[in-house]
Amino acid sequence: MAIKELTVFVVFSWIVCTTTTTTGRDIISSIVYQKLLAIKEIPQEDIDGAASELIRLQEFYKLYPHNITKETSLDADEAYHVGSVAYNENKFQYAFLWFLYSLDRLTEHSTTTEEELLHYLSYSAYHFGSLPVAIYFGQRLLNLDPTNEEVKVELSLYKHLRFQRTSNPDIFTLNTKPNSSYEALCRGEVDERASAISKRQRALSCRYSTGGGNPRLMYAPVKEEVEWDEPRIIRYHDIISDREIEILKNISRPQMSDVEIGGATVFPEVGVALKPKKGSAVFWYNLQKNGRVDFDTQHAGCPVLVGNKWVANKWIHEFGQEFRRPCSLSDWE
């Protein structure tokens, strides 16, 4: 639990705050540092885990390092660490981008050296298949250290392989083509079904529902919105009050925020993405009336990019529902 809740900001703030200047930002950082003094040591596996999750978000949402660090800028050493984790996970393009980000932020106070970064930039580009870039950074490294025999051998290899390769992928530009409809829906991208989906969405409706005459809802109907028609996906708004939400949150852990970016529930088979909304509940049948699994209801949660997502699941079993949702003998429903 502790590893999952460890944020990148907290982990890297522990490193950032060890240096002090007179700027306003450092005053804030020193306050954070005082709070972190109670933590005797942040385990290396937690730091690596935070970096790995950062790379996962970057990979999923196709983000560059500067996109991620707009609010909390990482210094050269921190960026180098993220790049090293990506490199060890064989995610060479993301490793390259982090090493490049680190190179741009090197200062006299950095423990990471220019030689280290040029070495890994060249290696990452080579493993990614971008040989001209590997040669460029390898040559820069050789200019710094003309006696480095290892670099000379590597450069000779890269130049030899360059003429055997027919393609050199662009390591500087992320491929935004989605690997699946799941990823596309999470990123809010429009797929080939967009036109048909738009027409179906215009036919959807919302109403105040009494649940088919439920006595408990006759004088206080619920806000019901049809998010999708087939399979039928319903969202109930304001199903739980802010006070009840706070009680549930305080039982577990306080001071968690709403989801700002990411965290949608997506149905890839039908091209539907439902954004999280505080206090609402989404309902659907995952079985058809004949008892067979409705594969159109296969769904997944998108990674949360900004904020925190709190969900509660309630399973309503098919047994005992014979009058509310009678079984069908048809193979089609």
Automatic annotation (TrEMBL):
GO molecular function: iron ion binding; L-ascorbic acid binding; procollagen-proline 4-dioxygenase activity
Signal peptide (UniProt feature, chain positions): 1-24
SUPFAM superfamilies: TPR-like
Cofactor section: L-ascorbate
UniProt-listed SMART domains: P4Hc
Chain coiled-coil ranges: none
Keyword Signal among UniProt keywords: yes
GO terms for cellular component: endoplasmic reticulum
Entry keyword Iron: yes
Domain Prolyl 4-hydroxylase alpha subunit: 126-317
Keywords, sorted A to Z: Dioxygenase, Iron, Metal-binding, Oxidoreductase, Signal, Vitamin C
Pfam families registered for this protein in UniProt: 2OG-FeII_Oxy_3, TPR_P4H
InterPro entries attached to this UniProt entry: P4HA-like, Pro_4_hyd_alph, Pro_4_hyd_alph_FE2OG_OXY, TPR-like_helical_dom_sf, TPR_P4H
Annotated protein name in UniProt: Prolyl 4-hydroxylase subunit alpha-2
Native source species: Anabarilius grahami (Kanglang fish)
